[in-house]
Amino acid sequence: MNYPEYRPRRMRRTEGLRRMIRETRLSVDDFVYPLFVVPGSGIEKPISSLPGQFNLSVDKAVDMAGRAVDLGIPSVILFGIPEHKDAVGSEAWKDQGVIQKATRAIKKAHPSLVVQVDACFCEYTDHGHCGVLVDGELDNDATLENLARAVTSYAKAGADVVAPSGMLDGFVGACRDALDQDGFDQVAIMAYSAKYASAYYGPFREAVDSAPSSGDRKGHQMDPANVAEAVRETAMDVAEGADIVMVKPALAYLDVIRAVSDEINMPVAAYNVSGEYAMIEAAAERGWIDRDRIVIETLTGIRRAGADIIITYHALHAAKLLAKR
Questions:
Q1: 107 belongs to the catalytic site
Q2: In a 3-state reduction of DSSP, which class is residue 102?
Q3: Mean pLDDT over all residues of the chain?
Q4: For residue 164, cis peptide bond before it (omega within 30 degrees of 0)
Q5: 315-323 and 58-70 helices, crossing angle to 10°
Q6: Considering 108, 195, 218, 320, which one is annotated as catalytic?
């Protein structure tokens, strides 16, 4: 029997050989770890739909950020659950808001850590929508005015990156203008440029109590069937001043990550969202999958698709696994 001269299995025979020719490198440097911050002190409340994740008071968020630093993770992204909610989400831009306090405390304790702040209003409004409602509809431009207030408040507190996530028209430009006018031209913007109207967000909405009281977000988040629109959206955000563009969710949108990465010459983030995390944890708890292998395989797939940055609830666990390699 005649064999080909080139035998691919030769280079798969040992782990050392496989490492030598590995095309995609997953690193702790790729990770951003989400933290959910709540009012109070000494609070580390488990989130039932996100096993291993917690609602944290500021002091506990500082401790958790320290764990990320110790594992070599370069960044966290903060989500706030305010003490009071109202129709416009005004707690989002209060100087003594929970996120402002957390940002100051984390930057003081861990100055090298990149602190990113999610900038949206669904956690802050009493109706659960991403801004100002007028006759039941999201008022895009009125919401932009409040978004400008919020991002400058986060920048003043010490945020390195603000991450507007409402998929509002013109949201990056509004943030950039507001930051620059207030002297925060060094603060970067990570835009949720292609955020889909997805069912994968369910556990997150429990974590931050942000489910809409009526209706849905399909009018401003993207249709899951569209790819070309994602490229258009990201290109518009880059033109308005985005420093990083994002695709969210990740696993059902690997083709979108690849399309954006191929077309947009900017850093691309992907959000490995709560539903994706919860499915892995639930299956692993039942013994149906090898959790460690699935976590690394999943994150490698997101990286292989073209993501430069991966926001993931598995960041701490993945960092530990990579350290053993």
A1: no
A2: helix
A3: 93
A4: no
A5: 20
A6: 195
pLDDT given at position 208: 65
Domain ranges, ordered by start, for the chain = 25-323
Q: Which value, in Å, is the radius of gyration of the alpha carbons in the chain?
A: 20
- What are the CA-CA distances from residue 314 to residues 51, 111, 319 (Å)? 11, 23, 8
H or E element in which residue 72 lies: none
245 in helix, strand or coil? strand
Q: How far apart are CA 136 and CA 307, in angstroms?
A: 36
* DSSP 8-state secondary structure symbol assigned to residue 125: B
Measure the CA–CA gap between 295 and 47, rounded to whole angstroms: 20
**Cα separation of 280 and 295, whole Å?**
8
| C-alpha–C-alpha distance, residues 288 and 139, integer Å | 45
Catalytic residue among 60, 85, 94, 248: 248
25-323, superfamily in CATH? Answer: Aldolase class I (3.20.20.70)
**114 strand-pairing partners:** 75
| Residues in the chain where the model's pLDDT stays below 50 | none
101 in active site: no
Q: List the one residue out of 24, 19, 21 whose CA is nearest residue 307.
A: 24
Tokens of 99: 């996120």
- Residue 248 phi, psi dihedral angles, 5° rounding: -145, 130
- Claim: this prediction has a pTM higher than 0.90: yes
The string of pLDDT tens digits covering residues 120-179 is: 888 888 787 777 777 778 888 888 999 999 999 999 999 999 999 888 899 999 999 999
Tell me the pairing of strands 137-138 and 133-134: antiparallel
